[in-house]
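Re: the 325-residue chain
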Amino acid sequence: MALRSYLRRLLNSNELKAIITEVDCDLEIAEICRSEFSSAGGGKAIIFETVKGTPVRVGANLFGSKERLLRMLEVDEAGLITLLRTLIHSGVDNAATNLTNACRLSSIEYTEPEYQYQELTLKEIPALRSWPQENDRYLTLALTHSVSLANGVSNLGLYRAAVVGDREIALNFAPGSGADNHLQIAEARGEPLPVALILGADPALFWAAAAPLPTGCNEYGFTGAIIGRPVTLSSCLTQPLSVPANAEILIEGEIRPGERVSEGPFGNHTGQYVSRADCPLMRITAIRHRIQPIIPATVVGPPPNENIYLAKLNELLLREMLTFD
């Protein structure tokens, strides 16, 4: 399901609020989102139709309730539990191996990209500044796609991405993450790591990217197994990667060996500002987008906020894996 299809469903069910008045990425959008989430039931999803300095629209508070997050996965909670149990019990090995084997690449199809253009600059993509002491603007729901140069295993992660230049992004993936493992392999070979940032693909991919999946479990395959149909990918223009064909904006680039940059401060979920002095630096090689693109955004900060519902789904997955026998 494309992001705009999901938003249309929310609109038809009176779960989406459109804000037509011009808003600013600098603090204003974040404050509106915090206010909406604090209202009854986590408030409604929001689409900001007119964002200062950009033609790009912003969708926010997209998973501000458990019901809305399950709508992304196109299943109710009982159905999701049944699906997870089926995947985890699909073999004779342990839970992690069974889940990994059940999510192989058979759940992926390939096609040409949908309605891709090359007009936007990085400066025109509405990254947010959410808290007063933040120095950079952040893409907070950019899916980061990378592939191991050693064995071709892909990883889809949800990492904060700070805009630090006209064609540079600081990608804060943690040591030990899938992307970090891929970067270490590339640097050991003296080669750049190809990377793609995906803004506004199938909303079900948000959970796959954030979920505690076993190492080597393909996030696209996992998503396809949950939503009941393959995820469709297409080739990048400038990097040897395949990414969702229905993405609203694709940012292609590479991380060259040893290139790091200071990032932060960033107001995170602990209620504190955090910084990193050695953040991997992504150099952009291409930007593509759909007509009148919409990008997703979330506002990070101390709980409660909308990210708690992603955490609750993670708890559900871990519970099913731990109770496997």
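The radius of gyration is 19 Å.
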